[in-house]
């Protein structure tokens, strides 16, 4: 089964990090819920949306989609791309090539452009919230396939992104699955598209067969029931992180609007009523991350330590493919646990205490 940690999805807590929306930006949403709230958000994020050009996305990427090392942050691969065109030492797509992974990166419409009508459909085509830099080859392999959970992949990228048969209840066709680290990012983009283009999205049915598997032909719910369930799971289990917050703030400067589901993640359940019992998340409930210190991270020589100021019940280290590597139940007197002899790669550390969980990404060189 090709599900990197999705089998653990219900065990991971939803940790809210607040973005920096302007004061009073969402004041008019007070007291609203359901599709009335969605329509109010549509008004807010549409009013001052000043679309930039599709070409401007290259500059936005360079300023806001970089790794700590200054390379292109690509959700589809582990390639080391440089910004800029090839003549200046970069890997930006110039219209040819890209038949092998790690050759060029291009501009991916996360919600495929064929679903909404293509390059002539504005401002959808140049909306930076729906545009991410991705490996050109992997982008081509994705095409316009839906996002879902897959098994028996017939294509796997360098970071584990895969195309295969859907195992998501409600859909059995070909699908594309990103790694867990980016599932929430994808979901929040799709919730944004359903909201920002509320005035048009009901008319997108019929544009593309793959899109029709996702869309329900309405302007309120927008997506099929199985899609809402999937996206909500991804939204909860890959919560908003600093990378998304920074990009959302940059988006506001760039095109004048924001993704409200990055700013206030609980808008999702308040609108689509997918989890009424847990719709309001209190940041005070999730303090476990503050109790844990991981160093060095990135780790070198296959070694890192987990130090904690309060007793922990359990530490579980998983590979990016979902395999349990090591499980530790610290003794009461312990304040530090060592993880060693690890191969280079990306790991997820799940920390548990008193029915709270927090998840930490570990990079091992």
TrEMBL record:
It comes from the Bacteria. Residues 294-364 form the Secretion system C-terminal sorting domain. One of its GO terms (molecular function) is hydrolase activity. Pfam families: Endonuclease_1, Por_Secre_tail. InterPro entries: Endonuclease-I, His-Me_finger_sf, Secre_tail. Transmembrane segments: none annotated. Keywords: Hydrolase, Nuclease, Signal. The keyword Signal applies. Residues 1-19 form the signal peptide. SUPFAM superfamilies: His-Me finger endonucleases (SSF54060). Belongs to the EndA/NucM nuclease family. This is T9SS type A sorting domain-containing protein. It comes from Psychroflexus maritimus.
